[in-house]
Amino acid sequence: MKIEYRLKSVLLKKTFNMTNKIITIFLLGMLILSKNTYAQTLPDLKVSANKRFLQTADGKPFFWLGDTGWLLFSKLTREEAIQYLDDRKAKGFNVIQAMGLHTLNVVNMYGDSALVGKNIAKPKITDGDSFTDEAQYDFWNHVDFVIEQAEKRGIYIGFVPIWGGNVKSGRVSESQARIYAEFLAKRFAKHSNIIWLNGGDIKGSESINIWNVIGNTLREIDKKHLITFHPRGRSSSSEWFHNEKWMDFNMVQSGHRTYAQDTSANEKLHYGEDNWKYINRDYKLRPVLPTIDGEPSYEGIPHGLHDVTQPRWTAAEVRRYGYWSVFAGAFGYTYGQNSVMQMFRTLTNEDTSFGPLEIWSEGMKAEGSGQMQFMKSLLLSKPFFERIPDQSLVAKQGEKYNYILATRGKKYAFLYTYTGRNFTVNLGKIEGNVLKATWYNPRNGEKTIIGSFPNKGTKEFNPPAEPKDGNDWVLILSSNQ
């Protein structure tokens, strides 16, 4: 009896242990499966056939609606990063511009350093990955986590490897840059939602060899993701890298200065607030490359950046920058907000720049951030790849804020006024005998039908409300035939 009991006991223990092993193996398998299928795989981006736009690998138009979240990787916890990404997805953003190394001693919100000894050739790596307890707060695992969360939400990451000032200071050699770029490409090319933004608020002529080393190394290892260069204010990547093999499209930083402030003798281009002029300049270059304003004035930041007593850029003004640049031929637009771009955390924190007036989570609610999606919707509502800038649509042009930007396809045209002044259109520029005219409200996306008329001669249009800065409207002309 005792022998039989012992035999049953041993058998039960073996069965229990075997069951535990099976459950453990099953759970591990599910964990591995969840890791491999966790993130949504986004389609690869490529330059369109006419070299003016971006598209997905299956040929669909991609209108880049970017948000500037430069310190996303270092200043937000995982939970906060998800909160931010959810907000931006809900508002139609599909690209977030963020930097890997803001400084050489950068740490994340969990206190983990990115580098060993401030040496970019020695990224600090913790054994394991972002799904294991002991390694989840590792700097680079945290970056992986945030990229995967963006991927899951259909958002691409415009990844800046290292901010320009770190290179300009002389603390990065070509050999270090090559090793670091290899590390980035091998680690992050696995994600479907990477866009490389070489540079980082710097002129390409400053340490140009290092920027070419980074660009060429990224291209050698990562064959599928797009690469550009984020330049200094009031300049374009085209000034230095237009013909480089690693360049896929140009990026402008039109900057944060007013007309009156843009007087520096050291700057080559003096366009003031006319960011459309940067796009117009790039648009004329050969060979043809797509171009975009990747950093216009940020909502809520002081005019000229550094004097916090200056007026601050408003939602109306960031709308103007968006429509002006896109109608001039840009393939998309990047919005920015002062508190969000630096992920400002507390009003008592002295480690800040440009006088933010609220913490990042409040800055996310800025009026302009919810209005950018209406520009994206408008541009995607008509045949995308045929669109060209065409100022010949405007019969009597104005200056500065009264300038009218016009763009068209074969059977449609868009004209943008920032002030809501009356303006006259040269008709007969698009196909069709009869045109339908509609006002489009950039603040809420609502449309108001004007009527139909013959497509010939000229016609004056009177936007709703009285003329003033910020009374902006888009005139939509479309063929009824």
CATH architecture of the largest domain: Alpha-Beta Barrel
The tally of beta strands, per DSSP, is 22
Strand order of the largest sheet: 10-9-8-5-4-14
Q: How many structural domains in the coordinates?
A: 2
Strand-pairing-aware structural class: alpha/beta
* Low-confidence runs of at least 5 consecutive residues: 1-39
The first-to-last residue Cα distance is: 96 Å
Radius of gyration, CA atoms, in whole angstroms: 26 Å
CATH class wording of the largest domain: Alpha Beta
- Shape category: globular
Task: Look at the structure and name the CATH superfamily of the largest domain.
Answer: Glycosidases
Indicate the CATH topology of the largest domain. TIM Barrel
Biggest pleated-sheet summary: 6 strands, parallel
Helix segment count?
13
Mean pLDDT: 91
User: Proportion of β residues?
Assistant: 15-25%
Question: Helix content range of the residues, please?
Answer: 25-40%
Protein name: Collagenase-like protein with putative collagen-binding domain
InterPro entries: Apiosidase-like_cat_dom, Collagen-bd_put, GH
Topology, please?
Elements: H1 2-37, E1 45-47, E2 54-56, E3 61-62, E4 64-68, H2 72-75, H3 78-90, E5 95-101, E6 115-116, E7 119-123, H4 139-152, E8 156-162, H5 164-168, H6 174-188, E9 194-202, H7 208-221, E10 227-231, E11 235-236, H8 238-241, E12 250-253, H9 276-283, E13 291-293, H10 315-327, E14 332-335, H11 338-341, H12 360-363, H13 372-380, E15 388-389, E16 405-408, E17 412-417, E18 423-426, E19 434-440, E20 447-454, E21 458-461, E22 473-479
Parallel strand pairs: 4-5, 4-14, 5-8, 8-9, 9-10, 12-13
Antiparallel strand pairs: 1-2, 2-3, 6-7, 11-12, 15-16, 16-17, 17-22, 18-21, 19-20, 19-22
